Every structure is written in structure tokens, then in C-alpha cells.
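Form 7-S
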Amino acid sequence: MPSVRDLRDRIRSLKNTQQITKAMKQVAAAKIRRAEALQKQSRPYADAIGAMLRDLIANVGSIDHPFMKGGRGGAPGGVILMTADKGLAGSFNSNLIRAAEIHARENADLAWYAIGIKARNALRRQSRETLQFWPLAQGVMFDSAQELAHRVTDDFTEGRISSITLVSPKLVNMMTQRPEVRQIVPIAAEQTEKKPAQGSVEFEPSPEFVLGRLLPKYLEFTLYSAMLETNASFYAAQLVAMNNATDNAKKLIDENTVEMNKARQAAITKEILEIVGGAEALAG
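Output:
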């Protein structure tokens, strides 16, 4: 049985840990509010670019753009693995890495792009070649999304990769962040929810020309939106993890306090018995 001193040291250590997890919980709560605000600000642009893309596809007879065609045969498939830069968020990063591993088992020939330090480290451990790496939350996120979009676009159009698949989290709610594996290039007609154009729409100089300019922007914003969602999902997962860690620390403190009181009471009882025994021996 641990001594009173051991239990007291353990309780002190748990209280220090609890203070850290409380502070991290508060930081995550503040940062997720900012991340959600950025997501809400980007939604009008997402709605507008999606509506314009649907109108264009409805007005274009034949679509002659690399993003709407299959990639070069024999080239590896490009996979963008998107995780957070840091841990202490429960199974958030490991779930994304596991989804990427399952996709890798189903598709042998793949080329990898890493977003987030945890993604880069996971690919290194698995001895998978990473074509390029970008941190998630360092620098301007939109600039990173543009650089990523330009790199994968060049690789796809030049035939170095045959497709672009994104592995990223979907923020269902504060308690649930689900890994999602989706192919974003080539763009299938179903992905754009093709519908008849609403009202009279004119495109200058031509729908094909506008579509050629819009599709790269659509890819940029798809990646930027995924980065925003990954960032928000990470802080949501960290908030839940730190809340659980704080509660667990409190439970352990209570359990160890009870054990310490029992040990202290046993020590006091033992001392009393020794004193009584000594007194009786002297009296005898």
C-alpha cells in the first residue's frame, strides 16, 4: 500500500496536470470560436462558386478541361492527407491516418501530399514518399491552400498523378469529427449537382472560357475549406479531450485523497495502539 507521502505527491502531480488540461481546454474553446467564424465567413463564397459552376455545366455542351477528364493511365493516384500540427486531441489524428492507411491498402500505387505535421510524421514512419509538405496552422492558410492547389494541378495536368484524393475530417458536431476520403479531381458531373440554370445567365466570352477559369478557383477553395474544417475539427476534438482529461484528473484526485486519508488514519491508529501497548507494558 502506498505511503501517505507517496499519495500526497501523487495528488500534487494530478492537481498540476489538472491545471494544464483546464488551461488547454480554455484555449481550445477560444480558438474553435475563431475557426467557426472563419468557416461561416467563407460559406457565401462557397455557395456562390458552387451555383456558378452548376450554371456553367448546365450551359456547356462538351466540357474540355483536364479536371473533367480522367488522368494519365499508369500514373500513381495523388492523395492529400490533412491532419493537425499538434496532438493532445484524443484519436483525431490517428483516425485520419488510419483512413489514409485503409485507402493505401485498397490502392497500391499512390503519391502523397502532407498537410499538417502529424501527417508528415505518419507518412515518414510508414516509409511513404511525400511529394510536398505544408503545415496546417502556420502562416496564412489561404496561401498554403493556393500553393497546394497549384502543385497538385501541375502534377495532374502534366501526368505525374492520375487523380487527386483528399483525406480530411468532417466536423459533424462538437463531439464527432469523422474522417472523409473523397476524390476531388477528376470532377464528376454528380459532384456539382448538375441542375437546369435558374433564370437567364450570359457568360462572356463563352461558358467554356469561364469554366476553365473557375475550376482552378473551385479546387483552391475546396482545399482551403478543408483546411478550415480540419482546424476547427482539431480544436473541437482537443476541447473534448481536455474536458475528459480534467474530469478524469478530478476523479483520480478524489480517489487518491480517500486512499491518503485511509493510510493516514491507519498510521494514526497504529501509533495509538503502540502507545497503549507500551503504557500497558510499563503498568504491568
